[in-house]
Amino acid sequence: MKHFIFKETQKFTQLWIWMLLVVVAVIVLLSIISIEDFNLSDKLIPIGIVGLVFVLFLSLTLKTTIDSKSLSFSYFPFVGKKTFGFNDIETMALIEYNSLWEYGGWGLRYNFDSWAYNTGGKFGIMVTTKDKKFLLGTHMPEEAQKAIEMFEAYKSKNHGS
């Protein structure tokens, strides 16, 4: 079995998301400035909220690692590192999907069948364990497929399936 390590770190880098955030921030800030009977402390609350939204989007990070015996991922700041040994994973497959139609958007999503952790794109690693089913978005489908093949070789060797 070949030893291959898949590592991917994703952030929200789509220009349209950042343009939308800037437009909303400008509208909020212009609205705050135009209201004369707000004192400074009243203006700081919406400015702080806009700032927190920017900090949240800047900090959202999906990290996925697949090595010779396990898969691990985290989606900072919402999901800490979770590790699944290959013995705990029943199936792992590279799929093409539409996050908007199948999960209602991007980020941390649930569609009554599985959780999705993504930042965009159309490829994902669908993972099924005894108790869970989840999708990890990937922008590196060729490398992800190599890691999945390594997983399948491990399962064949150790479980005869």
Classify the oligomer.
Answer: single chain
Helix content: 25-40%
Q: What is the C-alpha radius of gyration, as a whole number of Å?
A: 20 Å
C-alpha end-to-end distance: 15 Å
Beta-strand content: 25-35%
Keywords: Membrane, Transmembrane, Transmembrane helix
Transmembrane segments: 12-32, 44-62
Short description:
This protein has 161 residues and is of the alpha+beta class. It is built from four helices and nine strands. The strands form two sheets. Strands 5-8-9-7-6 form a five-stranded mixed beta sheet, covered by helices on one side.
Describe this structure in words.
With 161 residues, the chain is an alpha+beta fold. The chain has 2 domains: 11-58; 63-159, Roll (PH-domain like). It contains 4 helices and 9 strands. The protein has helices spanning 15-34, 40-59, 99-103, 141-159, and strands spanning 6-11, 61-66, 70-76, 79-85, 89-96, 107-110, 115-118, 123-129, 133-138. The strands form 2 sheets. Strands 5-8-9-7-6 form a 5-stranded mixed sheet, covered by helices on one side. β6 (107-110) and β7 (115-118) form a beta hairpin. The longest helix is centred in the first third of the chain and has 20 residues, at 15-34. It is elongated and about 70 Å long. The two termini are 15 Å apart.
Keywords:
4 helices; 161 residues; PH-domain like; five-stranded mixed β-sheet
Write the layout of secondary structure elements.
Layout: E1 6-11, H1 15-34, H2 40-59, E2 61-66, E3 70-76, E4 79-85, E5 89-96, H3 99-103, E6 107-110, E7 115-118, E8 123-129, E9 133-138, H4 141-159
